[in-house]
Structures are given as C-alpha cells and as structure tokens.
Write a structure and sequence with these properties.
Blueprint: E1 28-30, E2 39-47, E3 54-62, E4 74-77, H1 89-93, H2 96-99, E5 104-107, H3 135-146, H4 156-170, E6 175-180, H5 183-193, E7 198-204, H6 213-234, H7 236-241, H8 245-258, E8 261-266, E9 272-277, H9 279-290, H10 298-308, H11 312-328, H12 331-341, H13 348-355, H14 363-373, E10 394-399, H15 407-414, E11 420-425, H16 435-446
Parallel strand pairs: 4-5, 4-6, 6-7, 7-10, 10-11
Antiparallel strand pairs: 1-2, 2-3, 3-5, 8-9
C-alpha cells in the first residue's frame, strides 16, 4: 500500500554481533542513495522454510544522532505488502526528532529487493491499462519463480520470524515497532508472537487481522469520495467552480463504460504509450488520487475531463500505480499474503453485493480473486485472523478520509489493546506523513506509558485547499 521509487544501493557483510551498541549497529559502513551520512548495513541469514534454502535479509541501520541514545532501536515496517523496506530510509533520515535517541532499522522483507527479490518484471509484461493480475502473466510468473523458491513461505507469519532473527542479529534485547499501511499487520503479527521483545508499537494506516481488505475497499473508497465531494460543497469557491463533483464522477464512469477513449502517457523510458481508457482504468486512477493530497485536484481534473474528453492526467496516475504493482512490488509476497490471509476468508457473494452502487464496483475485489486463482496459497490459520489483544503501549493513527484503511479499522484494533491511543487526523488520507506526525510519534516512543495529551499538533491538520 505504501511505495517509494528511490533505489538503494548497499554493501553487505555477514553480521557477527555481540551486543547492541548505543551508537551504531554492528555491520559495515555503507552509503544509501538519498541519505547524506553513512549508514550501517548487515546481512541476516534465515531459512526460507524449515527444509528450504537460505535467504539473506538486507538490513539498513541509521544511527541515533543525539548524545545519549536509547538502547532500543526502532524498526520501521514498510507497507505493500511486497515493497522493500530499505526504500523508506531516505524519507526518515532527515527526521532528527525521531533519530535523536534511537537508531532506525529498515529491512527488505523476504522476496523483495535485497532479500532474495522475487520479481516478475523480467517476463517483459508491457502492462499499460487493464487487468491488475492478468492470468497469463501471473501463471507464468509463478512457474518461473517456483523453480527456485518455496512460494508457500512468503507470508506475514514467516516474515515475523525473520524480524526476530533481525532483532537477535542486532543484539537488541527489546525494540519498538512502527508499521505503515500493510506493515501494521506484520507489526501486529510480530508483537503477538514475541510480546516480551516489544516495548511499544506505532500503527499508521491500520490493517486489522480480521479485515476483509479487498471486499472493504469499495465502500471505503466511496466514503472517501463522499468526504471530498462534501468538502467541496461546503466551500463557496469550490462549489461555485466545480458543482456536482460526485455526479460528474458517475457520469464520466458511465460514459467510459460504454465508450472508452484513447489516451497517451509517457513512461519512465521516455516512450509514448497509447491505449483504450475504460471505466475501470478511470476509477482505479481516482482511487490512487484519494490516498494523499492529490485528492484536492479531483474536482478540477473531473471538470476538465468531462468538458474536454482529455483523460491524460488520470491515465498518468493509472500508469504510475499499475507500474508500482507490476515492477516495484514482489508479486510473490504481495499475492502470497493476500491469497493466504485475506481472500480465503471472504464471502465472495457478500463482497460483490457490498460493492454494488459504488464507483469502483466489485472489479477491485474480482481482480484479486482472479490473481489468487492463479497463485494458490495455503490458507492461513483461523487463529491468525483473530483480533490482537495486548497490554503493549500502542499509538494508532488513521486518516479521516483514508480510502483503504478507514478509521473504523483503527478503532477495531484499539478495542483489544489496554494501553492504546487512537488518533484520527482530520481530513487525512492514507498514512500521510508530516513533521507534526513525526513529533507525536517521537514523543510517544520517548515514554510510551505516559498519556498522550488530548490535544496535539495533529488537531491543526486538515484537508488541503482544493486546486484551482
């Protein structure tokens, strides 16, 4: 669910660790693209499966900056699932308030980037528009990867044990966790399995164990669209310039369903791509816009597209998101998690019924259902779907208009936690970052048992101004 396109180049050595240093993790000094100072890099070896091959996990550590660092590091867990966690390092390197007292640890989850990458971009699929998981591509990918990997071993359950191996390699007796988007479920999985090793947890864009993610998406996205349309209607300027945003969206979708249009976009290699832009392509692009501040451009873009028939801006958004799924994400881990932990537990009839009448309809759910049909996985245990219950201090953060992990998800997880605080950020999208949020997280981690003030700087945040 979260992604970064920054490439990280790292040099590894096998780690021989005798204890956690208060200034740096054991390993070799290395340079990380996008990070000005030297990081520490190490390799942690884990079994792919009990009788399987050995995997080498890539770990990057940014040392604490302050003069009296805490003995416990902070592990940051990427979303996706299937996006390399080390790509987060440049974004967090400058957050000095978070690094003042603790080292930041990033890792590539098994199957991603520097941890035995399992990517199918090498198949040469040229996906511009259309299905997210074409059966021919997914089946060919699985056949190719299964020759070298035990694909059943790419789940959050196995990744939780990988995290414990990383903790031991670092020599940290305990640590704190910060999970983002789908990384929140891995954080919960680890904390439930190794509670004595976790001092505190931050969950940003919360994914409950019992969430029917692909089935919940249609109503969650609809709620987000309604929020943006209502905000526009309450603004004299926005309402005057862009009347009936929601109705315009529906009109465009209906028109594209019966009469797709030809669009062009420029890819990363400078090529111009052309294709037929359908209702699905349009609503998938709108979904991508709703994640962050691009939602403020929706009324302007919708009006322009309806008046001119030019959908190039939406097509570019679709292209960027589809390439992220196709190239920047490990399909083996992405579908491995979804097809074991989520799809087997969803009532398909009910999922389609709930999606009826929404802008995106049942197509998103059906895309994942089709992907899992080509990527069979062992069904996760029923116990794994049970809500997390814990007395570990937890800070939960949700965006008010989040189109994929709505505030209700955070409330659901918080009900099982005896020491938690759930903050819903007014006008917020999906796991959006800000200096204020970093400050609140740092204050919580400094003393997780101290009560967070009822009022924080997060109360000053709101939906961005609409584009004009």
């Amino acid at each position: 669910m979260l992604a970064s396109r920054i490439y990280v180049g790292v040099v590894f050595i096998a780690a021989i660790v005798v204890g956690w240093s208060t200034t740096e993790a054991e390993g070799e000094s290395c340079r990380v693209t996008g990070v000005s100072e030297a990081a520490r890099c190490l390799r942690v070896d884990v079994p792919e499966s009990p009788a399987g091959r050995k995997l080498h996990l890539k770990v990057v550590v940014l040392p604490a900056l302050g003069p009296a660092p805490h003995r416990e590091p902070l592990l940051l867990i990427q979303g996706g699932p299937g996006v390399a966690g080390s790509l987060m390092a440049p974004n967090f390197a400058q957050r000095q308030v978070l690094r003042d007292r603790r080292a930041l640890v990033f890792f590539d989850q098994r199957g991603t980037a520097g941890s035995g990458a399992l990517s199918c971009a090498f198949l040469g699929r040229y996906n511009f528009l259309g299905a997210l998981f074409p059966a021919d591509h997914v089946s060919a990918c699985r056949r190719a990867l299964s020759r070298k990997a035990d694909l059943d071993a790419y789940t959050n359950s196995t990744s939780a044990d990988d995290l414990e191996a990383i903790r031991k390699a670092l020599g940290a007796e305990t640590w704190s966790l910060a999970g983002y988007s789908f990384g929140t479920r891995l954080a919960q999985t680890y904390a439930r399995r190794y509670p004595s090793r976790v001092r505190a947890v931050v969950l940003d864009g919360v994914v409950p164990f019992d969430a029917d993610l692909t089935a919940d998406l249609a109503p969650a996205m609809e709620h987000s669209l309604d929020y943006v349309a209502t905000r526009c209607e309450k603004s004299d300027e926005c309402r005057g310039r862009f009347p009936e945003v929601k109705r315009s969206l529906v009109r465009i979708a209906e028109k594209l369903e019966s009469a797709p249009v030809t669009v062009q976009v420029n890819d990363t290699a400078g090529r111009t791509l052309s294709g037929s832009f359908t209702r699905w392509d349009f609503v998938y692009a709108v979904r991508g816009m709703m994640y962050g501040p691009m939602a403020a451009f929706l009324p302007l873009w919708v009006q322009h597209a309806e008046r001119t028939g030019d959908f190039s801006a939406f097509a570019q958004v679709y292209w960027q998101r589809s390439r992220w799924v196709g190239d920047s994400t490990s399909l083996a881990l992405h579908l491995g998690v979804y097809c074991s932990e989520d799809l087997p537990f969803i009532d398909s009839t009910e999922a389609v019924r709930r999606a009826q009448g929404t802008l995106i309809g049942p197509r998103y759910y059906q895309e994942y259902r089709a992907g899992c049909a080509s990527w069979p996985m062992p069904r996760a245990s029923v116990e794994m779907r049970m809500p997390w219950r814990s007395d570990i201090p937890v800070l939960l953060l949700s965006g008010e208009r989040d189109p994929v992990t709505p505030p209700e998800y955070g409330e659901r997880v918080a009900r099982g936690l005896t020491r938690s605080r759930h903050i819903v950020i007014r006008g917020g999208g999906h796991s959006e970052q800000s200096p204020c949020k970093t400050q609140v997280v740092a204050s919580f981690l400094a003393d997780p048992l101290q009560r967070i003030p009822e009022k924080t700087c997060l109360d000053l945040l709101d939906f961005p101004p609409f584009a004009r």
